[in-house]
Model the fold of this input.
Amino acid sequence: MNEIDLAFTPALELAQLIRRREVSPLDLVEIYLERIERLNPQLGSYFTVTADLAVADAKAKTELLTTTSELPPFFGVPISIKDLNALAGVTCTYGNPALVNNIANYDDGVVTRIKQAGFTILGKTATSELGSFPYSEPAGFPPARNPWNLEYTPGGSSGGAASSVAAGLSAIAQGSDGGGSIRGPAACCGVVGIKPARGRVTKAPVGDRLGGIAVNGPIARTVADAAAMLDVISGYFTGDPYWLPDPEPSFLAATQQKTDNLKIAFSTSIPPLGTADANCQQGVLQTIKLLAQFGHQIEEKCPDFSGLVEPFQIVWQSGIAAAGLPAEALQPVNRWLLARTSSVAEYLQAVAKMQIVSRQIIAFFDTFDVLVLPVYLHSPIRVGEWANLSPEETFENIINWVAPCPVANATGLPAIAIPVGFDNNGLPISVQLMGKPAAESTLISLAAQLEAANPWIQNRPAFAL
Done:
């Protein structure tokens, strides 16, 4: 297998190659670091490359291969960490140039789990400032670009994570999702992204200050890779305010289970915010056609999301103030959002209202097992496309683009984004599957069925070859 093929090999297969001693952890790290050095200046996937740490870790693991066969599941597989998450001894900028010298002195719980699973960390990937936007172009950093067409965004805020996987600059990636920040970039870049159910993945050691809307999760080339990574990052950490039991069987096992006779709803519009463009509609309709062929019951129906819009915005924008940065250190849209920050009473009232409306939406899943929606309402925007708009105009555009995503965050429901094709700009088209509370396994099984019927792993961006 040549170096390009190795760079695009699924993470689970790389782990098996390492176990069979057909490739070493050091071989893989060197391949990915060479690709990062050559392609990242144009792509902007990484803010920080931890080359020395990665090489040292890979050398130690390569030596360990000669003495033991007891290996964790992803031993020696390279991964990237989003630059909203703390990695001890490495800069954590949160996409803000004022924090370029902010060295983390601890690992986030999800990073601890990633290390325990045997991954080798390549670096910190690009994000929007404070994770606020569905594009990754923070001031003071090169913009992250889409490897399928460099003129377009890879999405946000996990834009660097998704582009690193799509371009073969990482085998798999960690992302986070507070309003679509895993699913959107996965859709823009043609990879798989899972937004887990609330309580599935720890927020340790920090607290949850956004009413439970944000969660860490995997971005991967295949459903199986994403499922297996979700297995290793899931679980309780001491003091977590809420948690879910480990799945039985595993999420990876769910990829081999066939789901029969599900009742599946779908919609291509999100009242009152808008209807998907022709490309995104086609992705949903194509998926529904396949699901009907699998024998599932299909009905065009969608719960009413309108009551979530206002309280979700209040909770979400409160994260800007919670970051504790002065207004002059923020980009214009975040500065504008900071000025709109609600009072403590208004925040708590918004959390309560969001929970009340969420109960009504979750009741929809008493009747349906899965809801199929577009990920975003239109194809990716160009890099810098909204740069000259006012903050108000930009914020309105964001809301109208990402409208299908925040409902999973507000309700805590699981969702998965999977690619289904390409538009006429050569950019990926994806759909999201949303499921019942804590029902990631059903979504993973269904996504694996769709992946088998419409394989996309053989697609590689020409830029990355």
Q: What stands out?
A: The chain has one domain: 3-464.
